[in-house]
Amino acid sequence: MIVKGDESNPFLFFENLAQRFNGSWNGEEYASDNDFGKIQSVTFGYMNSLYVGITELELSEEMIFENDPITDRQFVSIRIGKIGDFNKKHSQAQQKDSIYIYNNLQKFKIVYPAKTKMSWFFIRFPKDIYDLLGTDKSSDFYQLISNPKPWFYYSPMLLNIEVLINEMYNVLHDKVVRRGLFLSKAIEIITRLREHGTANKLSNIAYDIHPDDLDVMLQLKDEIIADFTKIPNVSQLSAEKGMSKSKLQRGFKSVFKMPILHFFNHQRVLEGQRRIRTTHHDFTQIAIELGYTDLSHFSRVYKQFLGKRPSEEIRNVE
Q1: What is the mean pLDDT of the chain?
Q2: Measured distance CA(40)–CA(112) in Å, rounded
Q3: Which residues make Cβ contacts (< 8 Å) with residue 174, sequence separation at least 6?
Q4: Domain 211-312 falls under CATH 1.10.10.60
Q5: Who's near 205: CB < 8 A, 6+ residues apart?
Q6: Neighbours of 75 (CB within 10 A)
Q7: CB neighbours of 55 closer than 8 A, spacing ≥ 6?
Q8: 260-289 pLDDT, tens digit each
Q9: Which of 32, 47, 92, 284 is most buried per CB count within 10 Å?
Q10: Angle (CA) 138 143 149, round 5°
Q11: Taking the model in full, what pTM does it have?
């Protein structure tokens, strides 16, 4: 099933969704539970231009959301997706959790698989709202959101962002405080993402990429990090996608700014860092879970990518 929208007005989107799926929408909460599946969302609008919300869904059949770009208003969207609930801590599926930031001109698709519980946090804001958050008009981040070309930015889930979203999720059903807390946490998330983007030189930005190419590469990204014990076979992947290895590598690099195997190894190390910081698992267990041959192999690759050994990490586990 295909659902289309332009993200310019989430309220109108949920109103139309309610009509299509016989759901309910009261201006803040959307709910539908039928043969197609279960969808719940809490969304708030501020100043008639800033929207913040959390949507949970578990569908009986695959649904594809197609974002149709608009050109008469300039705005930025942040989508943070998670397999399962935001309040389920440190699941083994977290390597699929992703942060996507893009502007109103970027066309793309999001595939919601059947029989998989997913949660999406989203913020949509116009550039003039961002101007209220600071005076950094010379920064790379400000130049990015001001860029009139279609652009798309990817990051794996960041621990400090996940913490902020969990705080929102914990008050999802508290009607006394949730509207104000959603706004304050959204501003903090934008600020933290700006900080992260600046520190990383915004290296993961794709400009003017064809939407079909973006769709293929996002699907490929999910496939290769679905199981870190399996090293991607580029020859096999290129055959499955119906393109040469060089074309596959070029397309992937245009979105993620690194070749497939380098991206896989980087993401695997980042998942190792997450597990070190947030679980009680010892280093050897984490290394085995992620497909490394032994702890020394894990430690060597870890230092290569992150500049320190696993033993130098601070564990944030109670």
Answers
A1: 86
A2: 14
A3: none
A4: yes
A5: 144, 151, 152, 153
A6: 21
A7: 30, 39, 40, 41, 43, 119, 120, 122
A8: 999 999 999 999 998 998 888 999 999 999
A9: 32
A10: 160
A11: 0.85
